[in-house]
Amino acid sequence: MNLWLVLTINSIAMGGLLFLLACGLSLIFGLMRIPNLMHGSFFMLGAYLGVTFLRLGLRFWFAAVVAAIVLAAIGFGIERLLLRRLSGQALAQVLITLGLSLIVADSCLLGWGGDPISVNTPPALSGFTAVFGAPFPTYRLVVVLIAVFVAIALWVMIDRTRLGAMIRAGVDDPAMARVVGIPVPRLFSVVFSLGAGLAGFGGIIGAPILSVYPGLDNDMLPLSLIVVILGGTGSLLGAFVGSFVIGFLYNFGQVMFPALAYVILFLPMLVVLVLRPQGLFGTLAS
Amino acid sequence: MRITRKTAVKTFAAAAAGTAAQALGFSIARAQAEPIKIGLLTILTGPLAFGGIQCRQGIELFLKEKNYTLAGRKIELLVADTGGNPAGAKTKAQELIERDRVDFIIGPFAAFEILAISDYLIQHKMPTMAMAGAIDLTARTPNPFLIRASATSAQAMYPLADYAAKVMKLKNVTTICDDFAFGYEQVGGFQQVFAGDGGRVIKKLWSPLATPDYTPYLVQIQGGDGVVQGLTGSNPVKFMQQYASYGLKGKYPVLGGETAADDALLKSFTAEDAVGMINSCPYSLTYNSPSNKRFVAAMQRTYDDVPGLNAATYYIYGMCVEEALKKTGGRVDDKTALVKALRSVSLADSPRGPFHFDEYGNIVGNIFIRRIDRVNGKLVNTIVKTYPNVSQFWTFDPKQYLATPPYTRDANPPILAQHG
Amino acid sequence: MKASITTLSIALLVLLPFWLPNVYYVNIASQMLIWAVFALGLNVLVGYAGLVSLGHTGLFGIAAYTAAWLLTHGASQTTAALAALALAVAAAALFAVLSLRATGISFLMITLVLGQICWGIAYRWVDVTRGDNGIAIPSRPAPAGIRLEDPRAFYWASLLVFLLVVGVVYVFTRSPLGVALRATREQPQRMTTLGYDVWLIRFFAFLFSGLISGLAGLSFLYYTKFVSPYALSLSTAAGVLLMVIAGGSGTLLGPVVGAALVLAVQYIASAYIERWNIVLGTIFVLIVLFMPEGLVPGAVQLWRKSWRRVW
Question: What is the span of the domain harbouring residue B197?
């Protein structure tokens, strides 16, 4: 197989999965101004719940949607019951998400055991598709399509609906938004729950590629943070572009600079943060 | 803790002797009635937990079978969770040794944990039964109080290389391992024997321990006639799935190290992805020995699970403790004698077959080459060849081996003469 | 009143090896002191400057690795210790230059990335750091001929260092620089208008914080006689931040209480509860919800409330 061709396609494929993971975080970070340190936990929990639903006999796509809904409910609960009590105290909210991530990680160990669990690719999609002559796993291409679909749906929501307008207002200028009468607290609940649901959905969609195992949360959280920082918090376009940039950096970086395998993602991150802290598409409001 | 007539009589006799001995300030008699404490250092939380939990199951199974009594002495097992980090391992080792005053330590199971506490264990002359395969612990910088019943990192790779060269007739392979010491030692060991048999490692790939997507490595597998992997933890599951998804499964056979296809891990794989993998392991579920049959049955009865290398090794440690105590007559006060007894254990019947320890405390025993087959829809390892009496030095001259430098990430190990 | 409480506490701490039941607990106490020093160092930035960092483990680790490398290559204890602290401060300067361009969450992210880059180097630069295997040092230092291998002696040495750091931080907070620093936390724009160089103030605070973190790293190395990349991991960084915030970031002793709490759960509770991670997570969620200023201010408030009720 042609190395560079496959890497290019996989960069795009990985970008798709990263977008599913990071778009929720971008919304949460942008609107609520907190890096949600349990975002990786939402991803992992969605994957584990998906496994259970699959074992109960649900079809794959159905299981993914149900897992997303359950995660959205959990996210709503966390925001309404815990985060809202600390509105305005960003540091405290970050700490709560940190504490909760510990609880979720250990609970998953308790609930599903420590053994890794592999998830079968939906049979219809388990073959290969020729892309410019190179055979590529069909499922990974489908993930990109799903990511694009979700991106479009989110864009429509943010750009064309009232909810989206409120979110945009909240991201641009929270104080003003409140003054204008936007129910910011309720908005926070909606966005946090949406972010959690999207992450959970990403978890089960990614499971046929990544499998599900303890530590998945810690493996995915840095990636989601990197995408959001690079792209700019609160910017959907930023999250989209950032996901693919990171997809390319990851794939090509691991091959071309193996000595820097651990830092290949963090060094460009540092460059962006130092030279352009708002990220590629974010605004300077911080 | 059941009070049988035997223990009651013993206790009474001990108490009588004790009153006399008290006058001399001796507490041996009192010690006889006290349980012998075994400290278990393992990982029960975090990403490595599934391995650590199996370790605990192995030793608990053995002790339950023997009713927590070995060589006439009561046994108490104290379990400590190191959390999978060196400072935690040190603290828990201190808890077991200084606070709880254990007589044996079983564990720890990760290399970075044992390396953090080895000096401390030597300082306290603590008989240690470790799982971690770091080669120099029983070779170039040996811990004189340690025995190891699993294998060194390279020990299971030597027979695999031999099998690859002589049975599978492979000539050029690509290796992929996690980018840390256990990976380097596995590949070094494989290469040393494979090159000695006329083979060549055409490329060495090193993936970070936390790699969500192996694609950047899979695309670099080009040419040759086999892929050798020694991935650890849950990585083999991800790897095999992604390997198959790129159509590589038909192209190059995969050979795995001892962590790549552990019997306890098989249930996690997607069947089609892993079928056919050749792998080597110091333990195999279907090995036909009386004690293994008993062990596997007990494991399934008690934990509803199949054992893998971890559980088997810790079960064997239980057997070693029993043998050692028989040799010292149940006494644990002389640490040097205790370690000597441990190292002199030699059993004909164990879950992995006959074994004994070499002069450095490392096990010499069977290494099984297996092939993953699908039976009734489930994956099983079928033993295709057994290499008996494999030591950490393979068939090299130990002196020659020890004179060579340790395996490193990138260097090619020197080719040593294989005798036999 | 305050002076007598302080004297009593110090006396209790000094006599600790005698009233604790086992030397194992003395070792835990030493660890609590070491982590308390680290938390105090981090608090200079988090509590007094209002800059939350997840990268101080980088400085902690640089000090530990520098000393470890030098000691295993024949350097004397003094050289190793001085070099370690010097390098930690130099690294702190570099971190400061890169991160002080931002505040708030951006600052958090930059420091997070810097810390992770240090972790990656520790893991991958195997020729120097021995990677995952870590570096073990042969012995603890023997200042003025006193061997610190004995747990009690080491405890008293750690106590001395701890009290020294508490004293220095106390003096710092009362100094003009310290007061200015706190002012920059609340009103950075006003400070600039008044003619203060906010960046420079924060820069020096970062160096000070880095020095203390380096000292903690050195103590950690001496205690475990071993250093590995785990000391620079994200879990460690999050852990020490947890200590600062849970204890109370705006106070002097808050981080100390936080350090004691986290270590107590990690090492003592874990012997009795297998799911100690859930316990740790729950404790922090509860502290954040009901005592958001941290344990120390929360406890002080409770004490004052109950005192008032009595009267």
Answer: 157-284+366-403
